[in-house]
Amino acid sequence: IMLHSTLALSLMLIAVTSNLAMAIKKEKRAPQTLSRGWGDEITWVQTYEEGLYQAKKSNKPLMVIHHLEDCQYCQALKKAFAENEEIQEMAQNNFIMLNLMHETTDKNLSPDGQYVPRIMFVDPSLTVRADITGRYSNRLYTYEPQDMMFLIDNMKKALRLIQTEL
Hints:
Keywords: Signal. This protein is mainly alpha-helical. The chain has helices spanning about 1-30, 50-60, 70-85, 85-95, 150-165, and strands at about 60-65, 95-100, 120.
């Protein structure tokens, strides 16, 4: 009888422990819904307002990525963005990061239209950097998967502009 209850107790402990482990794992993964696949190591803010607040407070530029789930160009850009180590590292360490699947009320974030994907930078003085553009004259703030070096240069430019202007 003793052996039987010890075995039952052990099995119960194992069940509880594995459930706990799963709960902890879930807990750890939960905040990453905000990444939406753009980079799970990056800390993402939830709203544009929160992004502005954090940018001002931390003196880091805010990077805003507008995208949509069913947009193939967004998906391709997301994959290239998430796989680029230099972008991921800069995004994690030097930027306040926001990815949005809806438009903001701030018209400054759509100077040439509300297309996706669109990446814009806002400096800590809360100025939208309309001067940091991509390669395409018809959609100034769009990037394609092959433009990652260009995006890296623009991220560096956003960081440089802070140091020179604030």
